[in-house]
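User: Predict the structure for this protein chain, please.
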Amino acid sequence: MVGSGLDKVLVVDDEPAIVDLMELYLKADYEMIRAYNGKEALEKARSEKPSVIILDVMMPDMNGYEVCKVLKTSVETQFIPIIMVTALSGKDEKIKGLESGADEFLSKPVNRLELVTRVKSLTRIKHLQDRILAERNYAYQCIDVAGVLMLVVDREQKINLINRTGNEVLGYDEFELIGQNMFNVLVPQEERTKEIEKFNDIIEKKVDPPHLYERKILKKDGGTIIVSWSESPIYDNDGDIEALICSGKDITELRMKDDLLLNLNEMKERFTDMLDQGLMGPVTEIQDHVRVLLEKETEAENIVYIEKIMQNISHMTETLKNTSAYLDQHLEDEI
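Assistant: Here is the predicted structure, written as structure tokens:
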């Protein structure tokens, strides 16, 4: 029934007759997969990815508890619900099953209605888990491809997650920052104490996280960048903050440009002051004196010289004005 679209149920028992009986009970609504020992069960669970596993406890090579423990500690199979079936009814056996990760128990001989009900219930739970995992994975993908640095920091100040952009901006390999103390690796020494106090106040809900502010972040090579930083809390079931989602945009170049524009503006103001006070004033005064001389002079030869001086002064004045206008235009172009 490959490709039937039905949920898959893996039945594991070393007695073929028991497997046949389980299949008889369930085959109308599920695609059945068989396994007759622990090793085969592990292989089928990984390759077939069933929605539910019905697992016998008493098997010769690996017992059901051992198989269950392996399945529940594997990333590939940890979320598959497991029903353990046993002929033993003691309390200790159920405790042992729970410790190995079993989700449900059935006693032999298995009641058909009870089996169908348990499988249906666990299948519904598996669907819900799959949807939650898909949404979580989608969220992680969105974080990973985000164009800004993003990381998750837990209450112990450890980095639980950092996206691809964050690693690239800071110069780290993919998993290099995971588990590291954020303040030890990303915050400059002189700002560390203040930032830790701020972090603890947010975690303890003494203050609200700042919406947006600028801070320095250390790179792996020891350099620093300036980021536009924000923090958002992640709450646990009790309403306590268990972690912060931090995001930052590298604005180092923008701040460098701002500093450059500020310096240019200061230079322009100083030059303008120099023109007004150091050059334009004296030039205007000389121009006035020369104009008086021209009015009083009667000799034709002297008048020619004075007129040439007036022309040169006019050229100098025009040059100074053009220089000031050029600086104004250059500053506007930079902005």
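The chain is about 55% helix and 20% strand.
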